[in-house]
Amino acid sequence: MAPQREWLEQDFYKDLGVASDASAEEIKKAYRKLARELHPDANPGDSAAEERFKRVSEAHSVLSDPEKRKEYDETRAMFAGGRFRGGGNGFPGGFPGGGGTTYSTSGGADFNIGDLFGNGGGATADAGGFGDLFEGLFNRGQRTSTAARPKRGNDLETETTLSFADAAQGTTVPLRVTSPSPCTTCHGSGAKPGTSPRVCPNCNGSGFVSRNQGAFGFSEPCQDCQGTGSRIDDPCTDCDGSGVKVRARTINVRIPAGVEDGQRIRLAGQGEAGRRGAPSGDLYVVVHVTPDKVFTRSGNDLKVQLPVSISELVLGATVSVPTLDGSVGVKIPANTTDGRTLRVRGRGVPKRSGGAGDLLVTVKVAVPKTLDAAAAEAMRQYAEAEKASGFDPRAGWGR
Fold first, then answer.
1. Cofactor note from UniProt (predicted)?
2. Share of the chain above pLDDT 70, in %
């Protein structure tokens, strides 16, 4: 994604109150703290808190994404102070006309002017050049600038907690989200009902105006329409012409079967609304799974420990074992050793590709705490018979 011009004016680290070298976990922790404090539900009618909530959400959407954060850091570093050192030819900031010369930024880093514009130096925008960054600012080859794209809404993140069974089998949960959403009065257009935005006459709807200086053609955001390409003569009174209003809404989210603890689910277009009808961001739902007292998971396999008696292991038995949807009879072969794992095919966690994992049943001997006289006598007789048969449980064990 091409760097955004707004990044040059914003300090996302300051908005979140973290250092520029903060870890992903520190950024996440700071965002969650501020989001709770500034959430519109906790500050009804407080426009300042609402505006800060928006800034914090935007800062988190950039800094929590490794690629966006890298782009943001590089953009801010290159344009630190808003100027470059170099010489002359009437170019703002001191760019000479030579495309193959190396210059220094105000921070002291060297770069090649050809690389900066994505030509002449062998570097491309994909390889770390800044061609994308300049595409909206300079008209390379006197090219007419393309129409301004509306700013997409920010991504949002929320959380939900599921039981082990719901996470394994899938479920639908209602989520209450308070965020900037399309204004219901103007349906996101920003114009008063019955009216429509009109094409900006100053930039003919492009969002940019051009001017020439020396050998270069500049494109800069149109001041009349703030770079949107359209003018609203009669703004919607409910959203002040932005097309966006903070409101609470309930979303029914389908959680797919097999989701694991900590997994993020992306809901496209359910995030913060874009201004004046621009596309909405995405909503990410972080799933937390409550541990189960019977089951654990290993991928798509369910694991369970089955308490059994000594006689069931020695003589064999068929035992009822719980699953996610009812129970299943598991046959324990005679002379099964304690700790052996038996596999029941297809009774585990459903797979997205179809089918299901397996149920892994580990047998574990349960020893009675007390025995009545008859049971104790029977055990003594069994012990004597066992010894007479030549069985030694410690044969070959130890030194």
1. Binds 2 Zn(2+) ions per monomer.
2. 78
Asked whether residue 265 falls in the same domain as residue 338, the answer is no
Is 341 marked within a binding site?
Answer: no
Give the burial string for 322-339 (b: 16+ CB within 10 Å, else e): ebbeeeeebebeeebeee
8 Å CB contact between 332 and 316: yes
One domain, residues 275 and 300 = no
Cα–Cα distance list, 74 to 71, 135, 137 (Å): 5, 16, 17
Q: Which of 280, 281, 289, 292 is nearest to 255 (CA)?
A: 289
| Residues contacting residue 86 through CB under 8 Å, at least 6 positions apart | 93, 94, 95, 96, 103, 104
The DSSP secondary-structure symbol of 7 reads: G
Is residue 171 located within the same domain as residue 247? Answer: yes
Tell me, what CATH number does 258's domain have? 2.60.260.20
pTM for the whole structure: 0.54
239 is in an annotated binding site: yes
Ligand-binding annotation for 222, yes or no, is yes
User: Is residue 100 one of the residues assigned to a domain?
Assistant: no
Exposed/middle/buried for residue 347 (C-beta within 10 Å: 0-12, 13-18, 19+): buried
229-249 average pLDDT score: 86
For residue 277, is it within any domain?
yes
- Does 198 appear as a known binding residue? no
Q: Is 107 annotated as a binding residue?
A: no
Both 159 and 245 in a single domain?
A: yes
Does 152 share its domain with 249? Answer: yes
Residue type, 368: P
pLDDT at 130: 45
Is 187's pLDDT higher than 60? Answer: yes
- 263 and 314 inside one domain: no
Whether residue 39 is contained in a domain is answered as: no
Tell me whether residue 183 is annotated as binding: yes
Q: Is residue 87 part of a domain?
A: no
CA 132/CA 26 separation, integer angstroms = 30
Is residue 121 marked as binding? Answer: no
- Residue 166 counted as an annotated binding residue: no
67-117 confidence digits (pLDDT tens): 888 888 877 776 654 444 443 333 444 443 334 334 444 344 444 434 444
Does an H or E element contain 202, and which?
none
Range of 225's domain? 147-290
